[in-house]
Amino acid sequence: MKPPHGSRPGGSSRPPSDRGPYRGPGGQAPRPPGQGMRGDARAGHGDGPNGGRDAQTSQQDGPRNYGSRPDTRPQGGKAHHGGKTQAKKPQDGTPRADFKQRAPQDDFQARTFRDGGPERLSISPQRQRGYETARYSSDTPKGTVWLYGHHAVAAALSNPARRLRRLLVTEEGEAAIVKLLPPPWAVAPERVDRGRLDYMLGRDIAHQGAALLADPLAPPSLQSVLEKSGVIVVLDQVTDPRNVGAILRSAAAFGASAVITQDRNAPEETGGLAKAASGALEKMPLLRAVNIARTIIALKAANVWCIGLDAGGKPLSGPAFGDRRVALVLGAEGEGLRRLTRETCDEIAGLTIRGGVESLNVSAAASVALYELSKR
Question: Among residues 208, 207, 171, 216, which one has the least CA distance to residue 189?
């Protein structure tokens, strides 16, 4: 019996060509030509024609024979830029798991393959930093919001219910706020340049040189709203913060008592909402209801007449309701009232529109309806 091959621990008497690729003590197959040690063969690096490990891999992997292929991938392998490459099973019987190649790294981070297909690539941390906004910045503690714009900031400074943290203003922004609300203010202003605010809030944000870091307002209870007079505005999944802000502004202008939105499918209190409200966010109570239909039922139980606004209803007339307490229910942008919301309302009314226009924006429709209801 012939002894095992002397240069291969645990080998057999058969020559290497009969046994397939050699597996060393670590159980790993040799690297494909041009790859070298694991993690060292990156295309495009080093001085050699196929990377920086040409001399090393030539000693470990034996002579190179690429044939007509210009790259170092095994014949029949897959290529995926930025990810790992997993070759097909070679013709010599080597298992597929024994042939792996590492593709060049680029600006994307590679992820593993699943079921033979590449996963979605993720942006590198270096590029991701460029997409971070103010809500992820260290200048924005968790549970706070940046309010911006002259009227929104001045109204928040004058609201004793607001907890204020920081006030950043440019020279022009501070002068404009002084005209709206003379100092002293509850928080000392910090003078910054416009570039600092652009970096924190975004270059597309019209901050007008003023930004106020504050805690969101605590929503009042429905019972406290029912104790006041005025129309109650109910928003059924109105999701645009600018529309919600504009409705808050119209509600304050026409003497409404509160605005109710849905807790889940409605925008949070943001700087864009506050700027669209132009100070009305500090004056108009904003409630959040878990279920709009149940809220309408609760309003009806408190002798509030609920009117759903829809183009298919009869024309809305304020004097027709006399001295009754009214709740105006508005549907989402484009979709209108949901079926259950419509069925829960006491009646459906619409607006008289002329000139070939089919409908109005929800905030514009709210303004017209609130004006009509103010004629009572």
Answer: 171
What one-character-per-residue DSSP string does 216-229 give? PPPPPPHHHHHTS-
Q: Of the residues 169, 188, 214, which one is the last residue of a structural domain?
A: 214
CATH of the domain at 205: 3.30.1330
Q: Report how far apart, in Å, the C-alpha atoms of 230 and of each of 213, 251, 303, 315 are.
A: 31, 10, 13, 21
DSSP string, 21-86: S---TT--PPPPTTT-STTT--TT-SSBTTBTTHHHHHHHH-S---TT-SSSSPTT----TTSEEE
Q: Is 362 helix (H, G, I), strand (E, B) or coil?
A: helix
In three-state secondary structure terms, 201 is helix
Q: Exposed, middle or buried by CB within 10 Å (0-12, 13-18, 19+), for 105?
A: middle
Q: What are the DSSP calls for 141-158, one per residue?
A: -TT-EEEESHHHHHHHHT
The pLDDT averaged over each successive group of 10 residues in the chain (376 residues) is 48 48 48 48 44 44 47 46 45 48 42 40 39 50 92 96 95 96 94 93 92 94 92 95 96 96 88 94 94 96 95 90 93 88 95 80 95 89
pTM here is 0.63
Q: Which domain holds residue 263?
A: 222-373
